[in-house]
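Field: sequence (string)
Field: structure_tokens (string)

Example rows 1 and 2, in order.
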Amino acid sequence: MMKRSVKLAFLAGTLMLAGCQSTGWSGGFGVVAATEEQYVSTDQPQRLGREHFARGNYALAERYFLSAVEQAPADGVSWIGLAASYDQLGRFDLADRAYDQAAKINGKTPQLLNNHGYSYLLRGDANRANALFRQALAASPEDAIINNNIAILTRAQTIP
């Protein structure tokens, strides 16, 4: 039991340094200048979703990404943002649905496979995470984020 606790503590710490990625943004949902919003225009939900995700306001990010996909159901980037927000909120059932929708729109891109693998890493399902990371790596062997996530998973599995 103690070994498992140490593994989980290590994994939790390294996950904070790792991350998912998204199409068009580096290292997740990219940093957007932090500004106080006074009103929300109907054409801004994806931008606000990214902004709140970068700030760690995952519930607000989820709200804006949900608004974005309601307004533009074929927006695969917003579906990935929604899935990543759900992951951070621990709503993995909803994250899986959003990843599936993004895959229908954009296909199983390396970024989507990596993000979905990261989702399984957060859940503690190393086998599924590894399978998705390996698929992502096969399609994009030089991707630093994918390679980093595989290294984190490998280290977490080798801790005694």
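Row 2 begins here:
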Amino acid sequence: MDLWQWAVLIVAVAFAVLVVFLIKTLQAGTKTLENTAQTLKEVQKTMDELTYEVKQVVRHTNDITLDANHKLKQLDPVMESVKNLGNLLNEVTLVTQQYSHRMIEKAKQHKEKKEHEKREHGGSDNAALLPASGDSPTVRTYNATYGTGSGDRAGVQKFAKWIDTGASMWQKFRR
């Protein structure tokens, strides 16, 4: 055989070997692409499931938010009433404080008046401390505030009327 024939035979064998290796490489590439396609299908399926679940969570979250907003709006009047009650109590406290100051001033004036009368009339120390009758200003103040023995509830009723009057005045003032 000639050299020329041997060269063609070597080229043919090399080509056959090259084709075999190319076929094996293409088959490996095909398997890799099939595995990649299968993985992508699984990922797509998982994403579809997760998307559905996320949508459900978002819907539930929206429902909860709407419910919470509704309940908070229902509490608004209660909070407004608590605020108004606090304002009313502040005003009642102020009025009570002013009333207490007036009563203290009246008591001081009464004491000064008694001491002045004591100095003018020259009475004894013990006699000046005792009320002359049940008609003294101190007894009248006590009876007006707390009522007499049988009518102890009169002072409480007067206080309740003051509170009612104060509350109605406050409501009219707010409007």
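free_text_note (row 2): Residues 124-134 have pLDDT under 50 and may be disordered.
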